Structure formats: C-alpha cells, structure tokens
Known about the structure:
Blueprint (H helix, E strand, L loop, with lengths): L12 H9 L4 H7 L4 H10 L7 H11 L5 E2 L5 H17 L9 E5 L2 H14 E2 L5 E8 L4 H12 L10 E3 L13 E6 L2 H18 L3
Parallel strand pairs: 4-5
Antiparallel strand pairs: 1-3, 2-6, 4-6
Amino acid sequence: MMVRSPTVPRKVWKRVGNLYLSGLPMREVAAHLNTSIDAIAYVLRKTEVPRRSFAEAQRLVFETKTPSFHLRGSLSKKEKEVELTGAMLYWAEGYKRDTASGIDFANSDPEMINMFLQFLRARYVLNTNRLHCSVYCYKNQDLESLIKTWSRILGLSRRSFKNHYIKQNFKTDSRQLPYGVLHVRYNDKKLLQDVLNLIESYKRKYLLR
C-alpha cells in the first residue's frame, strides 16, 4: 500500500495550482499527487490561488458526472413528433425548479402519462433502475388497486412503484380522481437539464416574435 506524503514539494506547487484551476476538486488533485487534501489546501493558500465557492464546486462536480442515460440516434418523423409532444407536456406539467433532483412529471390522465413515457423512451436510453412511479391518492382509495391499475395501463412492473403519498383529510362530497395522481420520476438532474434545453429549443423554433 502506497503511503501518502504529508507535504507537497515546492517544485510541484505550480502543478497543484494548475490542476486545481483546470477544474479538478482538491480531493482529485491530492490523489494525483499522492498527498492529503490538507497539503493541497496549504499550497493553494500559500500560492494565493483563489478557492472556488461551494456553489462553483458543486457545479463542476455536476458537469463532470457521467449521465445515467444517453440520447438515441436519429429519430423517425413519428418519434420527432413524440419528442415535441413530450417536451410540451413537461413544460406544462413537469417540476422544473432548480431544487429538483431529476424528472418529476405528474398527472391523473393515464393517456397523458403514457405519452410522456413514450417520449422518454423515444429520446433516451434510460437506466430503468432510476425510473419509478409514485401514486398520490386519498386514504379512502385502495392504494394497491390503484398501483395494479397503473401498472397494467403503463406496462410497468410492481417494482417500479414506490414512495406513495396518501392524503388523510378529505371531504366525502369532494371530487376525487379515479386513479389518483401519478408522478413519473427519474433521478438524474442531467436528464432534467436535457429536457429543459429541449423545451427551450422548441420555444425558439415555434414561438412567434
């Protein structure tokens, strides 16, 4: 096992700064030079290399992270139509805040949910382990029955359904959605970023100025 050096030789200090300024986090700079993060921090401080803010560091980590999906090749005319439809659906019904950790599309209409899933499958090759659905319903509704219904309609296995929400307070005379509301989620912020970029590209193409 290689022992890490507790210090960085002065002749290597410039390389420390160059590696850090190239975008590498201190942890990776330390790994490159077989030393500790504390030693790297000491060199950066002594050489007056500006330290990144937490937000900037998080951005760099995000940009260098490998996506869990990839884009499919050239799409057919019908697939391009599905892509446009899916982008508009997410623009209207999807969760788009910066705090989102990935895709979250919610609706009570099975056909709309099905169309959005077709969009995801047409544009992307996904890691199916990251795709799951959550049912939101009232406590007087049969959750297991709703899951079975959604599973049958969408052609998804029972394993794809988790993290459900049951609303406890309801009025017996209030309108209830027969299937509840289904959230389709995919946990990868880079997928959300790609969908949002796709929406922007269609807005630029079709919005009249």
